[in-house]
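User: Teach me something about this protein's shape.
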Amino acid sequence: MQAEIAVLRFGLGARPGELKAAAADPRAWLLAQIQGPANLALDARGTAAPLAPSDEIFAGFLAARDERQKLKQESAAPADAKTLNMTREAYQPHYRAQVLARAQSAALTTRPFAERLVHFWTNHFAVSADKGAVFGLAGTLENEAIRPHIGGRFADLLLAVEQHPAMIAFLDNQYSAGKDSAAASFAARRGAARPDSPKRQFGINENLAREILELHTLGVNGGYAQADVTSFAQVLTGWSIGGGNGPLASGVPGRFYFRENLHQPGAQRVMGKIYSEQGQGQGEAVLLGLARRPETAQFIATKLVRHFVSDEPPPAAVAQVARAFLKSGGDLPAVYAALIESPQAWAGDARKFKTPQDFVFSTFRALDVSPARAEEVVRTFELLGQRQYTPGSPAGWPDTSKSWDGSDALMHRVIWASRMGATYEKGIEPPDLAASSLGAYARPETVTALRRAASSNQAVALLLMSPEFQRR
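Assistant: First, the predicted structure itself:
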């Protein structure tokens, strides 16, 4: 049963032959996957469009936005739907390419534990593509900030995420400016000289600071107060994105850019410690301090154990993972190893109900198929209620069964499973497919039902909707 736990619980579902590959030493099979970056495993047939980097995508977004403004100014008529959607249309091909690449990587990867960790951290550091400026950038946060750092230190992962343009844009930190910043002082002098001119208001935006404390490091019960949020927001003034017009024209479009003239000068106290560093280094120092705190270790450990072990995280497993986090200074491979070594992680009855994403990706792997068309993947997740890169909240998608096992949600799974069954090209007989995808978890009554099915296509649909396939 340990091979099944390694492949199904820690991984993304079994491809043909994977249970056998993990059987010799399931723990060693997992440990071999956690070193180094987790690169995309794209379809060897080349059906995925090349993925553009965030700076190129953002530059296209800015160009479309500028063209839209130009058309609005030149025309006295109301803007039509095409004009209004120009910026979204500039992002649409990139979003679809990112969704397809992610699905293909999940279907084909030979490091499924590493790939699941990518998905875990993407949900932990959630941004949502339903916000216009983030629509084409959400996937680049995963590919540029998370994949390169899942095998390194948590502090490096944290810094890469918080300085990524998708996170900056999602939480509007590019507009955050200190009241005593150089830009504010200049505006005040200019306003005094021109009393009749419009006055620009300067102020901090607390979104990024609050979400870092509440969702990315300490947790909602991590001991911070509103004063810490406000001070941290002051620290993060000037953390912005390159590009733009007028005074925002500096920096490479779509890359992190520190705007010194928006930064609030002076030392700030965050979580009882005074940070007197200057400029960008002040924010980086606060992030490093947060990454080392015991509250962060406890929060991250709890989320990891909830994701991999049980909706109700066993305290002993959480404590073991948290200790490894603190002892190693947030070395992520050491943290993952502590999770793997936890006895509670190998309990055969502690199986998690699959999210729609888990269900789809494990189906691809079980049937040994890789999606070829982005539109199909997008429609699939819209049907199942987990549109890719669109959690709708900085808190990410929920990670417990009660959020996913409702009757309507299960009916949509039945519809999709039937579609997959109808397209199944007979490779191996469904009973053998159950053995290769579920191993010892395949119940005798399920195998019997597969043998009695009217067709192999119907049997595949029955397998996908079996209670044991719906859990990991």
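Now, about its shape. Residues 86-108 form the longest helix (23 residues). The two ends are 12 Å apart (CA to CA). If you'd like, I can walk through any region in more detail.
User: That's plenty for now, thanks!
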